[in-house]
UniProtKB/TrEMBL annotation:
InterPro entries: MannP-dilichol_defect-1, PQ-loop_rpt. It comes from Phascolomyces articulosus. This is Mannose-P-dolichol utilization defect 1 protein homolog. Gene3D superfamilies: 1.20.1280.290. PANTHER family: MANNOSE-P-DOLICHOL UTILIZATION DEFECT 1 LEC35 -RELATED, MANNOSE-P-DOLICHOL UTILIZATION DEFECT 1 PROTEIN. Keywords: Membrane, Repeat, Transmembrane, Transmembrane helix, Transport. GO terms for cellular component: membrane.
Amino acid sequence: MLLPAPLKEPIVALIGDQCYVSLVEDFDLTDVPCIKYAISKALGFGIVVGGSIVKIPQILTIMNAGSARGLSLASYLLETLACCITFAYNWRQGNPFSTYGETCFLTVQNIIITLLILFYAQRYSETSLTLVGYIAILYGLTYLIPFWVMSTLYAATIPISLASKVPQIYTNFINKSTGQLSVFAVVNYFAGTTARVFTTMTELDDPLMLTGNVLASVLNGILLIQVLLYWGKKLEDEKPRKAD
């Protein structure tokens, strides 16, 4: 099957000439490697697109409520640091954007959420210092730090990423509520990290990235379970008081 150039070119750019010929022109559904590669690329593209908006509902939830109660500052500080390192490592490694692109958008969105948590806690000086700090970190990781150091830092993102989830899980457990935590963000984060396990296995020979993605998917699954368990439950000081 021959496609016009405006349709052919984006598909070729996504899956390559060989798989385009096999899957589209020859319609060979027995070409398992190309089918897996095409699925991986489609998932990767979807994750990047999803990553560009996944935290927007969380940002809007905080701003609409005028509060960041129930959100763990420690979780977002650690998660943002891990995103900064992951983005810089992959960018300097020259990996396909489809295998890490969401970290670019997640970094920006996590920085915004971290600043909002500090702002609504009326910690204004810390808000400014945190913004300056993240800009300096991103610049240093992207342009100044030697690559061998970046590899070591990337290995450290696995425990950092995992540790970033633990305070939020613990906060939810203690409060028996997820507070202002966005359901949309949690669901999409779980779906994204689970799909990223498949794309990493298919496109990259990197056991370190695969291990990190598997463990991230597990912890995001725990957060999803908490959202389902505590659905509709408010924090104690948000519940209406009984009349005396």
